[in-house]
Amino acid sequence: MNTQSIQLEVSPSIGKVSAEYIVPEASKCIMTLAHGAGAGMHHSFMTALAASLSDVGIATLRFNFPFTEHKKGRPDTPAVAHQTIAAAISEAHQTFPSLPVFAAGKSFGGRMTSQYIAANPPPEVKGLVFYGFPLHPAGKPSIDRAAHLKDVKVRMLFLQGTKDDLASWDLIASVCSSLPKAKLVKIEGANHMFKAGKVDTMALLVNATNNWIDKK
């Protein structure tokens, strides 16, 4: 496994953000990993996920959004987030042109990634993985945030906990059933951070991701 830290240029006006590759010796694909609104690329969930994906042959490129890089409390606007995701996808594809590219994100990172891909479909991206799609604010059930998903042309994997307060199970199940290219995997008893008592949810997430990628 090879780990490499880089500076990812988003744009001349936005500048650069920190990013890190984790690349196993025999990689079958490269996946961009966007973090959530509350923590950056070095959060324990993000680092554990990248390391665990590497164990099954999935290379990753984690990166910070500019608001995290510059220690701002408020998440970036969608326009800035989308530019950051575009830069990460381009970087991963250019660095590993022979590997299939997948895009993924935790919560906010996943939603921003799907918004970008819905509006600007990158031909190199073969699929999209959500590690907890934030369907609605806590306590305010709604499906408004899912409206753009119908415009995503690649297949999608939704990994969702049944006790996620940002995605009522009935609502996320309904959304996914309306999307022909979507697969929904239930993580029983898990909350938005995939905590579920003593259950090793990381293994469940990685196995589901690996199986889905292998099915093509």
Essential attributes:
alpha/beta; eight-stranded mixed β-sheet; 6 helices; globular
Short account of what is shown:
The protein has 216 residues and is an alpha/beta fold. It contains six helices and eight strands.
Mean pLDDT: 96
Along the chain, the helix and strand elements come as EEEHEHHEHEEHEH
- β-strand percent reads 25-35%
The global form is globular
Number of strands: 8
Instruction: Output the structural class.
Output: alpha/beta
Strand order of the largest sheet: 1-2-4-3-5-6-7-8
Estimated helix fraction: 25-40%
pLDDT below 50 for ≥5 consecutive residues: which ranges? none
* Biggest pleated-sheet summary: 8 strands, mixed
- Ends: how far apart? 24 Å
Radius of gyration: 16 Å
Number of helices: 6
What is the topological layout?
Layout: E1 2-11, E2 15-23, E3 29-34, H1 44-55, E4 58-63, H2 66-69, H3 78-95, E5 101-106, H4 108-119, E6 125-131, E7 155-161, H5 169-177, E8 182-187, H6 201-215
Parallel strand pairs: 3-4, 3-5, 5-6, 6-7, 7-8
Antiparallel strand pairs: 1-2, 2-4
Helix pairs in contact: 1-6, 3-4
